């Protein structure tokens, strides 16, 4: 049997490199002095640039309230009546001290004064001073007093006693209130506020038309010129239209 050398000896191996002489130990380099780089310093004192003064002004002007209580009727009392407190607490079930349109509508209905939600919302907005959609108990009393005041005026003008104002009765009521409208304007008004299409206005409609005319009168008086006319540009027309909603 022939002897086979290991695999590593089949091919000639390269010779090993000669041993290197030992290197002397490295000597520490002498310390070098180097000038540090100086960066420009930001001055600590800064000049104050005067800020432009923003004029104090109201960016959005609140529309005038439809019917101010002082302009509608004198309040009969300065304190809240016990019955008013009872009616208010009956609908203020969460005891928050404020009520919104649904609670006001319920309270009025319980008192025998039935109004649509749209009319109830307009009544609330008349006395919602902070525009948050709710009223306090003293404002609730003012709503009740306003309704009583308007109810007495409605019954006085309802000469037929049928609980509705005919076209002639509405025309007389408008003239007594200082609104002298031509026939075409009057017809447009009646078609708008006669929601039952009976040719007459119920008490709910009477409240609606009274608030609307007060809004229109306030908007007109704020923009009237010395010649008694009003001229609107488009922006102003939008502002006035929004105040009438």
UniProtKB/TrEMBL annotation:
Record-linked InterPro entries:
EF-hand-dom_pair (IPR011992), EF_Hand_1_Ca_BS (IPR018247), EF_hand_dom (IPR002048), Peflin/Sorcin_CaBP (IPR051426)
The reply on keyword Calcium is yes
Which segments carry the region annotation Disordered? 1-59
Low complexity compositional bias: what residue ranges? 34-59
Where in or outside the cell it occurs: the entry states: Cytoplasm
Protein origin, superkingdom: Eukaryota
Look up keyword Transcription and say if it applies. no
Which keywords belong to this entry?
Calcium, Cytoplasm, Metal-binding, Repeat
Q: Where is the EF-hand domain?
A: 145-180
Residue ranges annotated as coiled coil are none
Listed name of the protein:
Programmed cell death 6 protein-like protein
